[in-house]
Specification:
homodimer; alpha/beta; Arc Repressor Mutant, subunit A; Nucleotidyltransferase, domain 5; 3 domains; five-stranded mixed sheet; 13 helices; globular; ATPase_NBD (chains A, B); ROK family transcriptional regulator (chains A, B); WH-like_DNA-bd_sf (chains A, B)
Chain lengths: 402, 402
């Protein structure tokens, strides 16, 4: 992705790279700034800012529109903002029972979202990856139709992704092991020099929540067939020391409980995962996943005892696991995402009751249980957002490569 | 503690405060530096460094000895180091069944450690605080005997301590609630302007481990009657968002398990805490705590089945809880501290077995189970060290107050 720039010596290139990111960050944080205001905020000279802004405009990252709204003497400079026609981030999520894609512009605003339901456990990994590649291709075609180009591809996965390599080490619910995701995707669709950024779906979902204006300290719980957690502390995602954190679904909540595909017993997923709830509620596991969830919610709204009991029970077990998380990390907020966002009205009560009973600090430092504004679309959106954030963090690499 | 310095304007005082900390940090990190070398490392002028070093020497924080070992031209400057006669940190730990104190010099080296065993659950809080104050007084007398003065008092507590106020909100094993620790201590012993720094014992123990050269990313488990965890990520203690984190002892490992004084069921402490192990091993709970632990270890060394089974069982439950921690945080190392340091040979096996079985990343990112080098003395030592670190972080406040 980084190409050399033979005209400038190494030191100068490093400085320009740093300064370009600084300028773009200022424009992203406060759309409408003039060049002079960017200079004031960044501490760079006006000449440097002008030169960098020109480079960023030529690279399609920054647009100017009319004069900046400014008081005081002097000519009003043009208002700068991230270009809506700039590179877009493409996100694809390989869920256990669906594929989702999302296209966002440089500001992170979604330009399109698609979901295709299919049980990815019943096909070999290669076939699922073929379909994922097809979804990426469709998303690239959509970007072309909109007249924009893609700037990177984020890939959300229901498993443990190695931070340095992007290798999916294990996805228990899919039964997948050691798949080099960037290589697998590039082998199926021509991505040229576009960066591919694989990551855990729960982490991407937590990031999407943060970027959509979520709180600063929280645990975001992605409830699907698997259950994952994204930990955000002081506005920063903590993925674990080596990138393998957030495996809430395999918390041991009932040592004598049912067996889990991971090999252990009594994992939270087996007691509070989507399929466990549907099964206990008596919803036949036939049809598309969203239909099953719709059916469960219909039964909950109708006050059907089996559905109410199954969901309350899931809330109880979720509360047991999250009480451990809060006892360990002292996070003040839990955000329910994925399918749990839709089940929030029935889950939150029993969950909060367990937190009150088990969290040591609950009486003087209560824990809020919020509902994700994004729900099931969060992971693909977070993956797309990550691709865009990578450009904002290092615009020179993008401009060079373009 | 911070006193004003009317001679210098506010801006200058802030700068000097910052620079004094910078200079002292450089000397602490690399003992033996000359003034010129400190200037090079900090980027400050030699004149500024000389002036600050003189101030720090007058305040008793820095000592010089002979010429610094240096090559190259020019006069050799005197070698600077933290003064061994400088202010000492005093740590006191109020354990569930003991009181411990520790005196450390500016480098964190212990100059004295004392433990006094007594069941602090059988007396009212006021009486225990009287004895703790007595221990602090004895420690201050020892400092006077050594010809050094105290620079601050760290207080390690077996409960949840509010970060801003130093109030002990709850200590379940003592049955204590809402005690303003600094006020309680100052009411009993004349501490003048000495800062009092209360904190959770497991966190202080984890810090002592870090300062003694422990790894950079780990969970330190303090196993006493209660069980606490100190989380160190990238060389920094994470105490939780509001300071109430690390409550490993109340992880729910067996939902049908025994009741806990905290009000919940099946907490780890009830299954793997020191008293639970002693009881299951058949050791009569009479005598001093260290005698009970000695007796357990004697039985373990003799291969007595009840003792072996009880300890292995504790290791198993500890492994269940720590698997959750590793699944959540992906920490590569667990350090067994407190009484667990002595029980390591019998606990580590069953514990590691559970980690291998339950941690999702165990097969490709194994978890080490280490034994604390400090054991039961860690918390008091960490508390004393914290008092010293506070001086190193802001030497001007200390010099001003002195």
């Amino acid at each position: 992705m980084t190409s050399s720039h033979p005209a400038a010596p190494a030191g100068q290139r490093t400085v320009r790279r740093h300064n370009a990111a600084l300028v773009l960050r200022a424009i992203a944080d406060t759309p409408g700034l003039s060049r002079a205001e960017v200079a004031t905020r960044t501490g760079l000279t006006k000449a440097t800012v002008s030169s960098l802004v020109e480079r960023l405009m030529n690279g399609g990252l920054v647009a100017e529109a009319g004069p900046a709204p400014r008081n005081g003497p002097g000519r009003r400079g043009a208002a700068l903002s991230l270009s809506p026609a700039g590179p877009h981030g493409l996100g694809v999520e390989i869920g256990v029972d669906y594929l989702a894609t999302c296209l966002v512009d440089l500001t992170g605003t979604p330009r399109g979202q698609w979901v295709s339901e299919a049980d990815n456990r019943t096909e070999p990994a290669a076939a699922v990856l073929d379909r994922a590649a097809g979804a990426v291709r469709a998303c690239l075609a959509e970007a072309a139709r909109l007249g924009v180009r893609a700037g990177g591809v984020g890939v959300a996965l229901p498993g443990l992704v190695e931070a340095g390599t992007g290798t999916l080490r294990v996805a228990p619910n899919l039964g997948w092991h050691d798949i080099d995701i960037p290589a697998a995707l590039r082998a199926r669709v021509d991505l040229g020099t576009l960066p591919v950024l694989p990551g855990n779906e729960a982490n991407f979902a937590a990031l999407a929540e943060l970027w959509a204006g979520g709180p600063h300290d929280y645990v975001h719980v992605s409830g699907e067939i698997g259950i994952g957690a994204g930990i955000v502390i002081d506005g920063t995602l903590f993925e674990g020391v080596r990138g393998f954190g957030g495996e809430l679904g395999h918390f041991a909540v009932d040592p004598g409980g049912p067996e889990c595909p991971c090999g252990a017993r009594g994992c939270l997923e087996r007691l509070a995962g989507q399929e466990a709830v549907l099964r206990r509620a008596g919803v036949p596991l036939e049809g598309r996943p969203s239909q099953l969830l719709d059916e469960l919610i219909r039964r909950l709204e109708a006050g059907q005892p089996a559905a109410l009991e199954a969901t309350a029970d899931a809330g109880h077990w979720l509360g047991v696991a999250l009480a451990d998380v809060v006892n360990l990390l002292d996070v003040p907020t839990v955000v329910l995402g994925g399918a749990y966002a839709r089940l929030h009205p029935w889950l939150a009560g029993p969950l909060a009751e367990r937190l009150r009973a088990r969290v040591m600090s609950a009486s003087f430092a209560p824990v809020r249980v919020l509902r994700s504004a994004l729900g099931g679309e969060a992971a693909a959106r977070g993956a797309a957002g990550a691709a865009v954030r990578a450009i904002l963090a290092d615009p020179e690499s993008f401009v060079d490569a373009g």
